[in-house]
What we know:
Blueprint: H1 22-50, E1 60-61, E2 77-81, H2 90-95, E3 100-107, E4 111-112, H3 116-126, E5 130-135, H4 142-152, E6 163-166, H5 181-199, E7 204-207, H6 209-216, E8 225-228, E9 245-253, E10 261-266, H7 270-279, H8 286-291
Parallel strand pairs: 2-3, 3-5, 5-6, 6-7, 7-8, 8-9
Antiparallel strand pairs: 1-9, 2-10, 3-4, 9-10
Helix pairs in contact: 4-5
Organism: Methylobacterium aquaticum
Keywords: Glycosidase, Hydrolase
GO molecular function, one term: lysozyme activity
Amino acid sequence: MFSVKSGRAPMPMESTIPSAPWSSVLSRGVLWGRRALAAASLATLAACAGGGADFYPTKGDAKPHPGVAKAKLHPIQGIDVSKWQGPIDWTSVKGAGTQFAYIKATEGGDHVDDRFRENWDGAGRAGVPRGAYHFVFWCRSAKDQMDWFKRNVPNDPTALPPVLDVEWNGHSQLCPKKLPKAQALAMTEYMLREMEAYTGKRPIIYTDITFHKDVLEGELPDYPHWVRSTAAEPEQRYVNRDWMLWQFTSTGRVPGVRGDVDRNAFYGTKAEWASFLATDCDPRNHRRLSAAGLCTDK
């Protein structure tokens, strides 16, 4: 993981101070002090330019990519998990400073993640703000999928807004096809409306580069977006899309989780994150969406 290493210029040896009037010695001492301070400042700035502050020094990445180095400049970071992470020590996850966790809940219309309730309850007990996500299966009706989501995901008013995970199932043996844009967009919009009606919270759209280009580009501006970009900053991969969450690696290392885990960053400051937690609404769009009744405003 990246870290800041501050530098300090070597102080001059006492034997190098020439014989001179006391005022001259004082002046030179002040000058040397200023030079030392300037050198230290330059070293710190150089370190920041090379990577910036690391808000999570106990976390890491097994395969860090230089294209996403700026992700660590964001003070609010979290993880997303599923059964593939195995048992999780949520107390350690919390102790590492994790600000949020999204937990896989359901997929399609007949699958619940094997560790959903274990992770849901564990994160809750540890005090990690958590939300549930549904992975869309494009060969099942939108209604079936939302009926399944409602049947298996608690309607917890303390939870984060739900997430609809929309990406093509290209590696699926049962449903590798891509739908026409209009059909995929109609299914997505239906599921978002049903999620919001069930939870009372504006859902977040999670997507990857391909699906966004095929279906979402220029669409659904009133929903917060969570984008995957593990080799470049989101602005380089997503056209005209303000992102709220950024999944910047799938090979993260976080205390309490064995092996790889997805790491994510929130775009804004701690104050903006607090606003999101209080309203379930992207702070940048709060005034406009609140006027339309699209924010919780607890």
